[in-house]
Amino acid sequence: MKRILWFVIGTFVGVYVVTRLKKRVQVLAPESLQQSAEKVAAAIRHFGDEVRVGMAERETELRDALGIENTETQREDYR
User: Which Pfam family is an annotated match for this chain, by its short name (predicted)?
Assistant: First the structure.
């Protein structure tokens, strides 16, 4: 009876370990890493775009508050 119990426990532990390892390998696969990097890059680009929009809005507010004419000089987009 003890042997059967240990055999069942060992089988369950083995299946669990193999399943966890397969998931870990999929996460660390090159395709998965590339997808993660693309998501991070997209988030950084989006953040930069939002910062630029906020800066332009704030500059307009400051110009209006100080009574400075809006002589827009075209800035180079560094993206």
Answer: DUF6167
- DSSP summary character for residue 67: T
**Token representation of residue 77:** 């987009």
DSSP H helical ranges for the chain:
2-28, 30-66
Tally Cβ neighbours within 10 Å of residue 59: 13
Contact 32, 26 (CB under 8 A): yes
- Predicted pLDDT at 74: 53
Distances (CA, A) of 73 to 34, 61, 69, 77: 39, 17, 12, 12
Burial (0-12, 13-18, 19+ Cβ within 10 Å), 24: exposed
Summarised one tens digit per residue, pLDDT across range 10-38 is 999 999 998 898 888 877 778 877 888 89
